[in-house]
Amino acid sequence: MLPDHVTLVDVGPRDGLQNEKEPVSAAHKIELVHRLQAAGLREIEVTSFVSPKWVPQMADNREVMDGIERRPGVRYSVLTPNLKGLDAALATRPDEIVVFGAATEAFSQRNINCSIAESFERFRPVVETAHANGIKVRGAISCALGCPYQGEVSADEVERVVRLMKDIGVDHCGVADTIGVGTPRKVQAAMERALRHYPIAEVSGHFHDTYGQALVNIHACLQMGIAIFDASVAGLGGCPYAKGATGNVATEDVLFLLNGLGIETGIDLDRLVDAAAFISGVLGRKPVSRTGNALLAKRAG
Ligand SMILES: CC(C)(COP(=O)([O-])OP(=O)([O-])OC[C@H]1O[C@@H](n2cnc3c(N)ncnc32)[C@H](O)[C@@H]1OP(=O)([O-])[O-])[C@@H](O)C(=O)NCCC(=O)NCCSC(=O)C[C@@](C)(O)CC(=O)[O-]
């Protein structure tokens, strides 16, 4: 049975914009967050507290977090790879923080400059400190369906990292297809490993649409009862450490699917398309979203 309600986490302001070569102003990022919450998004990944040398686009993290007019009922999350990032993030009152590990050693090294074991030594005090401050911790497992350096990734490798997340007290397990190579059976096998250690309400999917498989993978997760997905308005994005990776699945496309299935999200498609048009205008290109472009063309007559 499919779930009645799905939560979409819009990661556009963070995952979507982190790889943009031209600087996007803090004011535009803040406006994007405002438009997303006006469309009904209740979970927004706003920014990351990572090294500005590694990801310059997120260097304005504090300005962006401080500039948002917060709405009750909306959860604002930020990425923190280590205690330095968490300390800086705490000053901006995030509702949730995200630690991001990888299913493969090669990607862990390229993305956060350490081994998987070292990454968890860094995450452990981050989780403890976040919890001591009453903040929930989401974990993301990159390259759970394939790695740009290693290639195939097995379900055993995914489960190893799921266990590490559970061992250090991470509250939620996000399974991420960083390079978009997953297909439904493989996705279900990876999700099944996450579900051995986390309740279904604390497992989510994060799909990049590089090979056009994201929606079918989300449908495969829905069939398992999974009801939380990351998506990125206008299909923004691409990971700086995964060559050729395109954006996350577009939030508009996921919403169109969910609306068609009669699954409740609380999100207004027209206002979401407005948000997609806004940020695409800022970036000077069309949304990478079938639904967004179709509705914009319809509006234009
Ligand atoms: C993790 C580090 C920081 C380790 O980087 P490092 O060089 O190993 O760290 P370090 O502790 O040796 O410090 C080196 C320098 O970085 C500074 N530093 C150290 N930590 C921080 C911090 N938190 N904030 C700001 N500055 C920091 C530190 O102060 C020092 O500055 P310096 O003395 O040279 O001037 C680095 O590798 C990094 O920032 N990597 C970027 C990771 C990233 O943002 N990747 C993209 C997001 S993950 C993703 O997109 C995947 C996901 C989640 O969406 C799911 C999916 O699709 O797969």
UniProtKB/TrEMBL annotation:
Residues annotated as domain Pyruvate carboxyltransferase: 6-273
Reactions catalysed: (3S)-3-hydroxy-3-methylglutaryl-CoA = acetoacetate + acetyl-CoA
EC number: 4.1.3.4
PROSITE patterns: HMG_COA_LYASE, PYR_CT
Pfam families referenced in this protein's UniProt entry, alphabetically: HMGL-like (PF00682)
InterPro entries named among the record's database cross-references: Aldolase_TIM, HMG_CoA_lyase_AS, HMGL, PYR_CT
Domain of life: Bacteria
Swiss-Prot/TrEMBL keywords: Lyase, Metal-binding
Family: Belongs to the HMG-CoA lyase family.
Protein known as: hydroxymethylglutaryl-CoA lyase
